[in-house]
Design brief:
Blueprint lengths: L3 H13 L2 H30 L7 H7 L8 H9 L4 H6 L2 H6 L4 H20 L3 H8 L6 H27 L4 H24 L4 H9 L1 H8 L6 H27 L1
Helix pairs in contact: 1-7, 4-9, 4-10, 7-9, 7-13, 9-10, 9-12, 9-13, 10-11
């Protein structure tokens, strides 16, 4: 796939030399740090009261909305500039006339932002290490939990990549991405409010809450991974078609 690696390096470098990456990463870690502190405090209270229940890692990844809600805003912040800014400034033209495929352009940019997203999560391993000092930590649970947040984030980033490609405004790209992710999140809530039936089963299948609840207990459901893969492949396929249309203009 000609040109993928140079585009990947270029995008990753340009991302980390701008304040955006550091602002987003700092805000994310502050929020998750406060989230972990609340989880740990709640876990300690339960232990003092002689109550059992989930361990701190399971509680952190699977039993509060504070893990998922920031992703609805941070993922669009990471992707909003991928194509929108280049189209606005005109720097996309030399890239489209270079001997690189549309697929390489899209994947190079997308993989760069996925690496940045994974980099945001790496410091949270300190939380796991801290949790191991106050309670039991199942490494299988840790692995499946991080698999879930990466798989979910990969889908969110793919959706953000698509919205960035259909507009020249970073703000519009972010808003469209946020709206799409909130709609997807709200659809998943249907598993808690709909009566038993196909509708409830469908909502449960796409529920990020349900996925994190399962994976945080070490239950890896391949059906959910298939859905995550669909959320990655379908938006990226459409984005490639969008980029192809630019070249035909």
């Amino acid at each position: 796939m000609s040109g993928l690696w140079p585009i990947f390096r270029r995008e990753l470098f340009s991302f980390f030399v701008t304040p955006l990456a550091w602002v987003v990463t700092t805000a994310f870690l502050v929020i998750q740090g406060l989230h972990f502190y609340l989880v740990l405090s709640h876990y300690a209270t339960l232990q003092l009261q002689g109550m059992g229940g989930a361990g701190p890692v399971e509680m952190f990844f699977g039993q509060t909305v504070f893990l998922y809600l920031p992703l609805l805003f941070f993922c669009p912040a990471l992707t909003m500039r991928l194509f929108a800014e280049e189209r606005r400034s005109g720097t996309i033209e030399p890239l489209l006339t270079a001997p690189v495929t549309s697929t390489a352009v899209v994947l190079g940019k997308y993989l760069a932002v996925v690496v940045a997203y994974v980099g945001m999560w790496l410091p949270t391993l300190v939380f796991v290490w801290t949790a191991s000092s106050v309670g039991r930590v199942d490494h299988n649970v840790v692995g499946s939990s991080y698999l879930a947040v990466i798989a979910i984030g990969a889908g969110y980033l793919a959706i953000g990549t698509l919205t960035s490609a259909v507009t020249k405004s970073q703000l519009s790209a972010a808003i469209m991405s946020i709206m799409a992710l909130i709609a997807l999140f709200m659809l998943g809530i249907g598993e808690f409010i709909l009566p038993e039936g196909i509708g409830r089963d469908l909502c449960g299948y796409v529920s990020v809450w349900g996925q994190m609840n399962d994976f945080s207990r070490g239950v890896v459901d391949s059906r959910r991974l298939v859905f995550d893969a669909t959320c990655v492949l379908l938006p990226l396929f459409v984005t490639v078609r969008v980029v192809d249309s630019w070249r035909q203009e």
